[in-house]
Amino acid sequence: MAGGDGSLAPVAEVALERDGAFVCIPFGTRNHFARDLGLDRDDPIGALRAFDTGSEQRIDIGRVDGRLFLNNVSLGVYARLVHRREAQRRRREAFARIRAWAILLTHRQPLGITIDGDGVETRLVLVANNAYALDLPSLGERKRLDEGKLHLYSPGVEPPERSGERFVVDAAAGRLEAAIDGEPDVLETPVEFRVERGALRVLVPQT
To answer: Could you tell me the pTM of the whole model?
Structure first.
């Protein structure tokens, strides 16, 4: 698949169903998955070498209520920002960006959710397929994609990070705005997250 993070998962799902090898060609805006896979995000042509001389890896996938995700699923203020940005895409870009950040900074209402039955007070929940680095300069990067674990981050909550193979997030509202690999969605609660270890075959160029 030649595209950005939001375009990859549907094609990866087909590769998984057919036990085919998946090739990622970084051709989007941020290309976080390509970076974590070890690809040069500025060289999409070089990524094509995976078809000729690629070496195969097996990596984990995440699922949220059965839907595949490669990077992460966010709930709360960041997801709300993504929803507003999508709704305003046809407006002037600068105005849409300013309005989205204003929503992020001023919205202080907790989500009113439970994580595996424990009530938490937080404005943001992020469930990641493998662990994200939380220290500079590698903030937001993943050192590996085959750990076989999800990592749940919830700022302001103790503990702020949890890891496991499965999480269940519930909300009294019965639904939560979400961003799945950066794409907006609405999830009916309770929401089940789980990991499938080594499920996806990936070809990467040999270095």
So the answer is: 0.86
